[in-house]
Amino acid sequence: MKVIISAFLAAVLLCACTSSGTSEPTPIPGSLTYGGQPRTKLAKSPIGSAIYNNFNDSSGNRVEETYILQPDRSLKLMRQQVMSIH
Question: What mean pLDDT is predicted for residues 26-40?
Fold first, then answer.
């Protein structure tokens, strides 16, 4: 019985950790997926590959993005960091 209760509590704690309420980053002008997926598919890259994109936004701030290549060859924006120049 203790094992079942421990497993249940572990599952509840794991769910609490994964549903943190943070949302996914949103593509902005300059992002690879801004306005939809890119027209070219990454046919030779392995599924799960990280793709990096760096650009300056309209305010001149440096933006660094990380995408993951999905099984359907689409890109999922995983991280977006804006570095202020001020």
Answer: 94
User: Distance (Å, rounded) from C-alpha 44 to C-alpha 33?
Assistant: 19
Sheet strands (E) in 1-86: 50-56, 62-69, 75-83
**51 within 8 A of 80, measured Cβ to Cβ:** no
Rounded to whole angstroms, the Cα distance separating 79 from 25 reads 6
> What number is the average pLDDT over the span 33-60?
93
CA-CA distances (angstroms) from residue 62 to 4, 14, 74? Answer: 50, 35, 24
Residue 72 main-chain phi, psi, to 5 deg: -90, 10
Q: Residue 1 has which token pair?
A: 């019985």
